[in-house]
């Protein structure tokens, strides 16, 4: 029986996604190549590893056993690469980091900059995901470190403090609501909005809160940055919801004011997460310590 590292990474990606198509994309393989590898793994092992159905795929009992050992093997490989990356010339290590929108835009550049400057042979593969997706990926061994909201169920993961992220509404200084210091989300749902481009984890989170009230937000425009939202809000294009740190940075030059949202979901305590029961690689552990120390 012979499985290479690509096979193991593909198998974990497929069971985490519940789909061969999405798992192949995550593993950077074409669908035919991924399907052929999975068939080869079942033939080599002489056992069925996946149950295939209309709604996707799920691991069999043998598949669960393979996934367990695959995670251990890949973790050991990462540890080895991390240690060699510190001491061997020409060998680089990569830390796979998943984070939500606010962490990526508001906190990580300043937090990670000094650490990366001091670790020249370490690279970071950073991807934006919703907190629930990050928990699944970390649990499945598909990433090393995650940054999530503490409102997300993180059972089975170790947590460290990272930051407090408060969401606020930004409106032009000339707006009648500009004199208010805080406001409830329900009280602004009838207004028009400017939001982030589709696919943003934070924007999906905000729209999910509106959906819970039976409301769909009306967007006049979507942009790629929080600063873009603030600029459009300053011109009375629509209300924006951004991190408080962004609003403070943009408030004076853009003639906007920020109103703190009173809803509990608008104040999020961000946490660093990683797998329980397994020590992170030395470089990943050092990064976790650095990021949590700043909290």
Task: Note the topology.
Layout: H1 5-17, H2 20-26, H3 31-45, E1 50-53, E2 56-59, H4 61-87, E3 93-99, H5 101-118, E4 122-128, H6 131-139, E5 145-149, E6 157-172, E7 182-183, E8 192-196, H7 201-212, E9 218-223, H8 226-234, E10 240-243, H9 244-254, E11 256-261, E12 267-275, H10 282-293
Parallel strand pairs: 3-4, 3-5, 7-11, 8-9
Antiparallel strand pairs: 1-2, 5-12, 6-10, 6-11, 6-12
Helix pairs in contact: 1-2, 1-4, 2-3, 8-9
Largest sheet: 8 strands, mixed
The helix content is 40-55%
The N- to C-terminal Cα distance equals: 47 Å
Total DSSP E strands: 12
Coarse morphology: globular
CATH-defined fold name of the largest domain? D-Maltodextrin-Binding Protein, domain 2
What fraction strand?
A: 25-35%
Low-confidence stretches: none
Please give the radius of gyration in angstroms.
Answer: 22 Å
The CATH architecture of the largest domain can be given as 3-Layer(aba) Sandwich
Run of helices and strands:
HHHEEHEHEHEEEEHEHEHEEH
Class by alpha and beta content: alpha/beta
Domain tally = 3
Q: Tally the helices.
A: 10
Query: Could you give me the name of the CATH homologous superfamily of the largest domain?
Result: Periplasmic binding protein-like II
CATH top level of the largest domain is Alpha Beta
Roughly what is the average pLDDT, rounded to an integer?
A: 90
Description of the structure:
Helix 7 (201-212) links the parallel strand 8 and strand 9 (218-223). Helix content is 45%, strand content 25%. It has 3 domains: 5-68, Arc Repressor Mutant, subunit A (Orthogonal Bundle); 75-163 and 269-293, D-Maltodextrin-Binding Protein, domain 2 (3-Layer(aba) Sandwich), CATH 3.40.190.10; 164-268, D-Maltodextrin-Binding Protein, domain 2 (3-Layer(aba) Sandwich), CATH 3.40.190. With 295 residues, it is α/β, with parallel strands linked by helices. It has helices spanning 5-17, 20-26, 31-45, 61-87, 101-118, 131-139, 201-212, 226-234, 244-254, 282-293, and strands at 50-53, 56-59, 93-99, 122-128, 145-149, 157-172, 182-183, 192-196, 218-223, 240-243, 256-261, 267-275. The strands form 3 sheets. Strands 3, 4, 5, 6, 7, 10, 11 and 12 form an 8-stranded mixed sheet that branches. A two-stranded antiparallel ribbon has the order 1-2. Strands 8-9 form a two-stranded parallel sheet. The N and C termini lie far apart (47 Å). Helix 1 (5-17) packs across helix 4 (61-87). This is LysR family transcriptional regulator. Belongs to the LysR transcriptional regulatory family.
């Amino acid at each position: 029986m012979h499985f290479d590292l690509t096979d193991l990474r593909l198998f974990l990606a497929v069971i985490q996604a519940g789909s061969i198509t999405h798992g192949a994309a995550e593993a950077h393989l074409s669908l035919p190549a991924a399907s052929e590898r999975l068939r080869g793994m079942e033939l080599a092992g002489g056992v069925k590893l996946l149950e295939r159905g209309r709604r996707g795929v799920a691991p069999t009992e043998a598949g669960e056993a393979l996934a367990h050992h695959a995670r251990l093997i890949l973790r050991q490989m990462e540890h080895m690469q991390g240690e060699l990356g510190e001491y061997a010339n020409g060998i680089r290590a990569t830390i796979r980091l998943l984070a939500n929108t606010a962490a990526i835009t508001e906190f990580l550049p300043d937090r990670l900059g000094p650490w990366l400057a001091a670790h020249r042979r370490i690279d970071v593969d950073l991807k934006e995901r919703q907190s629930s997706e990050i928990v699944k990926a970390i649990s499945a061994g598909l990433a090393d470190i995650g940054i999530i909201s503490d409102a997300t169920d993180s059972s089975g993961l170790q947590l460290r403090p990272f930051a407090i992220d408060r969401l606020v509404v930004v409106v032009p200084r000339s707006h009648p609501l500009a004199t208010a210091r805080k406001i409830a989300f329900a009280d602004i749902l009838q207004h028009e909005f400017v939001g982030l481009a589709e696919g943003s984890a934070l924007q999906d989170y905000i729209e999910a809160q509106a959906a819970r009230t039976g409301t769909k937000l009306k967007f006049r425009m979507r942009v790629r940055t929080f600063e873009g939202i603030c600029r459009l809000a300053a011109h009375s294009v629509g209300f924006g919801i951004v991190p408080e740190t962004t609003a403070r940075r943009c408030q004076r030059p853009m003639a906007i004011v920020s109103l703190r949202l009173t809803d509990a979901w608008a104040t999020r305590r961000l946490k660093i997460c990683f797998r329980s029961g397994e020590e992170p690689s030395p470089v990943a552990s050092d990064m976790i310590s650095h990021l949590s120390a700043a909290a």
